[in-house]
Amino acid sequence: MRAEKSSFWHIGVIGGSGLAAGIDLEDAQEIAVSSPFGEPSGPVVTGRLGGVRFTFLARHGAGHCIPPAQVNYRANIDVLKRCGVTDVISLSAVGSLREDMAPGQFVAVDQFIDRTTARANSFFGPGLVAHVSLADPVCARLSTMLAGSARRAGGEVHNGGCYVAIEGPQFSTRAESRMYQSWGADVIGMTAMPEARLAREAELPYAILAMVTDYDCWREEEAGVEVTDVLAVLHANARTARATVAALAGSLPQMREPSPIDKALEHAFITAPEARDPAVIARLDAVACRVFGEQD
Ligand SMILES: CSC[C@H]1O[C@H](OP(=O)(O)O)[C@H](O)[C@@H]1O
Ligand SMILES: Nc1ncnc2[nH]cnc12
Predict the structure, then answer these.
(1) 82 is in an annotated binding site
(2) What are the beta bridge partners of residue 112?
(3) Fewer CB within a 10 Å sphere, N or C end of the chain?
């Protein structure tokens, strides 16, 4: 594991609902990577596109067997970091809480409200306490490039949007859906949290291209969401999602300039050095390699 990031882009892609089959990569190789945080969702597939390295991971595993609350978000981010990924993009399905964000359209999400309750949401804890800034949870540079790529791929993209992450697996009640609207949320999903938090702790810039698949259930005249509706939209748009990744590969500058997020842990630790638990630090050999170096 290199302590400093490569000056070449290496994009980690987390594919959500409808994208378990992966993205088109040249010289694709499937690799099972293990993590001290447990089982990731599956093996990663690494390869190249237009000279850029991409590593893909299906969030819900092969055949979509892992529900949102049981995804091991820590292991997924850890293995991507272990593979040398420099930045992470998520391709996710969401419900819309706004009339003007219609099914089939994309949203370059830039904020989150986290309503998840039962997920391991930090790499740190007893023995090593750390607090990273999450004011701007999405990397603006990556998100802008991702949104531009989605447009070039033929997608209609909204710049910015607030994603409310619910625990699921059930969809929301109408009262909840309207409450989230009143809070200023624009789209709703079940997976971006704690994924975005963990990417930040792992010093990985994170961006999410959310694909609107339904209007959730806030519209009086409409029935609630059904998975079949979600999948119908997803299948119709999976080609655009894949073309977006190809367009991104074609548009990345040759060299990757460092991002401030590459040093997100710089001022995060509060536990006194002599009080830090070596066993906890040992597990962070990938996530916090830059800070603690390689562990034996
Ligand atoms: C299949 S509908 C609900 C499911 O879809 C979204 O998953 P992902 O973000 O991985 O595309 C949503 O968050 C739910 O997990
Ligand atoms: N309405 C919705 N609520 C939560 N997650 C979703 N994923 C796709 N549509 C959704």
Answers:
(1) no
(2) 163
(3) C
Question: How far is the centre of ligand 2, averaged over its atoms, from the C-alpha of 93 (Å)?
Answer: 7
Averaged over 4-24, what is the pLDDT? 91
The residue type of 151 is R
CA distance 72 to 34: 12
Q: Which helix (H) or strand (E) holds 84?
A: none
Confidence label for 254 from pLDDT (cuts 50, 70 and 90): confident
Residue 295 pLDDT > 60: no
214 is catalytic: yes
**Catalytic-residue membership of 285:** no
Q: CB–CB of 46/31 below 8 Å?
A: yes
Phi and psi torsions of 202, nearest 5°:
-85, 10
pLDDT in tens, 167-178: 999 999 999 999
Please work out whether the CB of residue 15 comes within 6 Å of at least one atom of ligand 1.
no
What pTM does this model have? 0.96
